[in-house]
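Recall that a protein's primary structure is simply its ordered list of amino acids. Everything else, from secondary elements to tertiary packing, is in principle encoded there. The following example makes that idea concrete.
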Amino acid sequence: MVGSHCCGALYGVNSVFSTVSKLEGAQNQPGAIRRVLVVDDSRLQRRILVSYLKKWGFEILEAESGEQALEICAETMPDLVLSDWMMPGMSGLEFCRTFRELPQDGYGYFILLTSKSEKNDVAKGLDAGADDFLTKPVNSGELRARITAGDRIFSMQQELSEKNRMILDTLGQLQAAYDTIDKDLIQAKKIQESLVPERTRDFGAAQVSLLLKPCGHIGGDLVGMFSPAQDHVGFYSVDISGHGITSAMMTARLAGYLSSTHFDQNVGVQGHDDQTYSLRQPEDVARMMNSLLLAETGIEEYFTIAYATADLRTGRVQLIQAGHPHPLVLRRDGSVEFIGKGGIPIGLLPDVSYDQFETELKPGDRLLLYSDGFTECQMNNGQMLEEDGLVELIRSCASGQSGQEFLDDLFWMLSRSMSPEQGMDDDVSAILFEYEGN
């Protein structure tokens, strides 16, 4: 259902982890100052600085004014700038401020050369974007120390820029992986919806309606019905443990076990020599499904189910409840009754017996099977809906509704009442059996 696209997406995620490993390795690849721009209107001062810098192996650029320095920066951006503060025309302070506004890939370390030492002057320099200061006349040892300190900052900035670039690349890969998985999940949702081809079916003496609302693209709830023989119908509500892809794949497997079209594959249907079919007892169906699931190797999921068979001639309904919420009988006179004894979910323990029970419906009575997405939904008051809340929710629905209209209204009422912070955090499903008699 998710297929090769998902595999490609997972490969993309693996590439992301590889990129993260490179990020950690980048810490051992420090950058270094290589290109230095010397800006001073004094040729002598420039010669002194250049001689130091060449001896230390730096690539040198020279400018005699702030204006000329900006022209150089437009073509070749330096790693480090040594600029005099007091220059005719554009001062070093103005040049620094303009330098910081230039578009550049990395960071340029800026040292102002000045005879100023007043705190206000230092504050002005820092405000303009200077990183450090050197007092003239420049001492070679102090200059080397300041460049070394700048080199450490420059290296960290280079490393940070590289990490940012790699993070952006990583986010791009994650987005691509997400988009691929999301596309597959949308297709998976369509496939899962095809497992419930009809939402309402009229059997003459009764009508069966289905509600299936996954909390995500795909879900682990399943509802369905089938009628292999005249005047008899089977219907079920299933809730797979967990959420997501695994649960959705399990619903596909269970839809095959309870197929509405291929009765020879349906464990709820028994074939006869005369090519006719009949419904098996619900307790036998639960036992068979439990054995089938436990026989599957590598499957850790289990599921709860409420499964019923109905005789449309008499209104007699036989049921099993395996860990699923208690079925609810809605009588024509307005009374309600929860029925069932609980039971152990399918796929947990071997050799489990399931207690079958029954109820008799009169014309106008209804039977509701539902998942715990209803009763365990968190409401605005912070409490779960539970069984009493479900009854109140049903009574708040518009009167006279039946079938799909009733289920849709019930879900709408639930959505209005649920906590906006919590939202819909579980699949919601239900099946409504309405008995009208002959």
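Residues 197-435 form a domain with the Phosphatase 2c; domain 1 fold (CATH 3.60.40.10). The two ends are 43 Å apart (CA to CA).
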